[in-house]
Amino acid sequence: HDLANLTLLLCVPPVPCWCRIWAAPNARLQGLCGAPDAPHPPLKIPGGRGTGRDPPLHVLLHKDGRLTVTQVTSVCGSLPILHFHYQLSEQRNACWETMFTSDSLFLEIPEGSLPEGSKEGLTSLLMFSEEKLGVSHVFLWFSKSRVDQALLTRTFHYIGFEIVKPGHPLIPPRADLVFLGYSMSPTCPESEED
User: Fold this and answer.
1) Strands 137-143 and 162-164
2) Are 153 and 109 in contact (CB under 8 A)?
3) Residue 34 lies in a domain
4) How far apart are CA 93 and CA 87, in angstroms?
5) What is the largest CA-CA distance in the chain?
6) What is the pTM of this model?
7) Residue 109 maps to which CATH number?
8) 117 DSSP 8-state letter
């Protein structure tokens, strides 16, 4: 079920989410054909507020001195989106938007160069994912048509990511994308002493 939802989400043309600029709540967003999306009729959700639209639910999962993690859950039941905001300095931050399945995170690497401080923020994202979310895998994806594909692969290989071969059961079947995977080390439950 999660893979089917992820496959649907990955069918949408890529939207840069490495350092996303958040749109105003009433902003008209670009549709699938490149033009602004037409307004859609409001949804009536049983038990909703009665206005016809219920916003996605935003839940703060974690906040410390540098890392803030929030979860956005759509009312239509699609995969939860996790927002990672890592404060690099007073002036700079790194933001990631990931899709969360039962045991994996999926993160798109958009076109363009990686922002300065990305490695530090990504390392924090990996630590949080393993320690707090208990995920088994983190997958990055980017277009196979990128001219810097070899550089990206080497860069993320240095951090511990490996190329995931097509047909892997945890990734959607997309011939136009490269997937890199990071497997978390298995954590052994602490043995109880009698």
Assistant:
1) unpaired
2) no
3) no
4) 4
5) 66
6) 0.66
7) 3.40.630.60
8) T
Handedness of CA 29, 35, 36, 37 (dihedral sign): negative
Q: Which two tokens stand for residue 125?
A: 């994202």
What order do you get walking across the sheet with 81-87 strand by strand?
Answer: 57-63, 67-73, 81-87, 93-100, 104-108, 137-143, 177-183, 162-164
Please report whether residue 45 resides in a domain. Answer: no
Task: Report yes or no on 139 lying in a domain.
Answer: yes
Q: What is the CA radius of gyration of the chain?
A: 18
Report if residue 170 sits inside a domain: yes
Supply 32's token pair: 């699938």
Structure-derived torsion over alpha carbons of residues 33, 36, 115, 12, reported in degrees to the nearest 10: -40
Residue 66 contacts residue 124 (beta carbons within 8 Å) = yes
What pLDDT tens digit does each residue of the chain (194 aa) get?
455 555 544 544 333 333 333 333 333 444 444 445 455 454 445 555 555 455 667 889 999 989 999 998 766 667 788 989 999 888 888 888 899 887 899 998 878 887 777 788 888 889 999 999 899 999 999 999 999 999 999 999 998 999 999 999 999 899 999 999 999 865 444 434 44
Alpha helices (H) along the chain: 2-10, 118-128, 149-159
**For residues 31 and 113, what is the distance between their CA atoms, to the nearest angstrom?**
25
Structural domain including 125 reads 2-12+54-183
